Amino acid sequence: MCFSQLEQLWEGNKSFQKLKFIELSHSQHLIKTPDFSGAPKLRRIILEGCTSLVKVHPSIGALKKLIFLNLEGCKNLKSFSSSIHLESLQTITLSGCSKLKKFPETEEASRDTGKYGEFEKLFLDDTGLRELPSSIEHLNGLVLLKLKNCKKLASLPESICKLTSLQTLTLSGCSELKKLPDDMGSLQCLVKLKANGTGIQEVPTSITLLTKLEVLSLAGCKGGNLSQGIWLYVCAHHQQKDCDRLFACSILLEKLNLSGCNLLEGALPSDLSSLSWLECLDLSRNSFITVPNLSRLPRLKGSYWNTARVFDLCQSFHQILKNYWPMIAHPWKPFQIHQVHMHGGTPDI
Prior knowledge:
With 349 residues, this protein is an alpha/beta fold.
């Protein structure tokens, strides 16, 4: 019944014991959802693009069989269930619900399972959320959490660090977000952390405990000097050897994006060799001049730089050519570096 003219599916509490699936996507006149308590076997509810939808009936929180809920693009949605305890739920999509200011409280998992159902994916991009409830820790099966472009989100609860199954956390475009929780290192399964264009001023040192991290992107975080974050925090307060130890904790990192982060000369260590899995490095639109040594990054395929000293750059490539000459001489062994991009004005020689 997509693109229907319905304003409401049914009124009152009616029994639909066999109903398992509701899809009313792009029903522009739908104002509210019905009482779901008479349809206990519902498994999928898809109301994507119902732009007039203002309220979701609170009975949705009692649907124990529901596995998928999609309210993407319901831009006038203001009211959602005050709490949810959905035993089978796997995915909630609320992306584009720009007037939704609050996500419901999540109840603790049952003692029988010890886990909040199979809840894996939560899409909250482009919503009006100002905060997340501390009870989000109960979603301990969550694998993906997307909060992209939540312009009013000012903070994350420390309890988010108890999501020990979380693999992807996207915060890009959350311009009011100034800091990450201190205990980020507890997210032991985290693989991707994207926080481009946020107001983050520093990164907690516990990030060095994220040994599975493959993608770290903080492009455009200009709120402060990130030398107090990542490995730079250690470099600023301890010995250089401590900085190297910090890098050793990030050996699986494949993509690192710190473009436009106001990194100054001396902010980077001279040797990035501990990042041996790195494939893409973006340090463009910064204020440093000297290029770090890239000669021990065998997997590096692309790097992006601001204006750099040509001498330093040539020195790095001279070393690369020296190390990889056997590969060049034997074409069946691929030479890994495919792209180097320079951004900025005339090099300072």
